[in-house]
What we know:
This protein is an alpha/beta fold. Helices cover 38% and strands 17% of the residues.
Amino acid sequence: MNNHxxxxxxxxxxxxxVNSPVRAFGAVGGTPRFIARAEGPYLFDExxxxxxxxxxxWGPMILGHGHPQVVEAIRAxxxxxxxxxxxxxxxxxxxxxxxxxxxxxEKVRFVxxxxxxxxxxxxxxxxxxxxxLIVKFDGCYHGHVDSLLSRAGSGALTxxxxxxxxxxxxxxxxxxxxxxxxxxxxxxxxxxxGSEIAAVIVEPLxxxxxxxxxxxxxxxxxxxxxxxxxxxxxxxxxxxxxRLCYGGYQNIVGLQPDLTCLGKIVGGGLPVxxxxxxxxxxxxxxxxGPVYQAGTLxxxxxxxxxxxxxxxxxxxxxPYPQLSSRMTAFAAxxxxxxxxxxxxxxxxxxxxxxxxxxxxxxxxxLDQVKQADSARYAACFHALLAAGVYLxxxxxxxxxxxxxxxxxxxxxxxxxxxxxxxxx
Length: 424
C-alpha cells in the first residue's frame, strides 16, 4: 500500500493519522512516509523507497538502526521475558553505568519516557524545596507535562499561560517562562522571585527549537543564581545525554546540576527515560521519602538490555571523535554548496548534532529561530525527500548523524542537498 493510502486509512482510527503530531508533516505539507524497516543509516518506506536518515528516531539511534549488539541483547532478553513488574539486576547495572558516566547523577530512577522523567523531576524538586514555582525557557520542550506546556505571558517577567488547550491556567501559572540565553532577564527574575522558585529546568544545549547553543555565561548564571536562592537546577539531557560525549553535555561544559533527565539513547531505541541527581534529593522519592512516583513498566528489562548494550558500544568503541570530525567535514561542504547556490543557509553543529536554518541569524533564542525561512525549509525538505534524504519534517527540529553515517553516506546526503538547493 502506498503512503497516501496508509495515511488516509490511519486518519480513520488515529487522531490526525499519527501518534505524535510532528509526524503528520503539518509544518512542511505533503504525505508522511510510513516506514517499513530501517538499517544502518537508512529508512525504507512502505513503497520500497530508501532514505538517508538524519532524524534517527529524533536522536537515539546514535549507532545507526539495527546495530547487531543491541539487537542481540534485545533478542536474548526477549527469550527470558518481556516484563516482570519486579526488580532486575539489569536495572542496577544500568543505574551504575549512568552514574559512572554522569557523576552528578548519584542515584537514578528509570521511567518510560522523557516526559515522565521531567514530570517526576519537577515533582521531586517541589517536594524537596517545599516551593511551587518552576522556571523554564521559551523554545525548550520538556515533554507534554501540563505545567511545562506554558508559554510566556504578555510581559517579560509574567507568569506562564497555557500553550495548549487542556492545561488549566492555574497550572500554567506555576511556571515562569523566559527567553533562552537571556542572562539579564533571568537574573532579574531570580532577584524578584528566587525565594519562591523550586527549580529551573533547562536544555543545556537546546534541541527542540532546532539546535541552539548556550551563549557564554548562560549556564553558569543559572547554576550560580539557583544555588544562591536555594532552588534546584534540572538539566534536561533527554536529547543530549550520550549524544555528544559518553555522558551528558554537562560533562563537556563543566556544569553540576542538582537533577538530570535522560531518555532517547539510554534505551537503545526502546521507550525509556531516567532522572537522577544528588543523593539527598533522590532519597525523598518513595519508598524512602514522601514524594510519590511509580510505573509498572519502569526499568523494563528489554529497554535496560538495549540501553546497556548501546552504552557498552559507546564506551568501548568511543565513536564521538569520529562523529564530530565527520560532522565538521559535512558542515564545511554544505556551507560551500549553499554559497554556490546563493542559499542563505546557516548550519551550526556540536558533535553529531546540528541545526539547519534558512537565514543568517543569529539563532540564539526562539524569537530569532522563528525569523528563519520556514517556507524555504519546507521546500528543501521535499526536494531532499525526492533525492532520498530524510530530514525532520519541521524547521524546529535538530539534524543528526550516527556512527553508521560513513563518508560515502554523507557524500550521498551532500549530493542530495546539491540537488535540493538547486531546485529551490
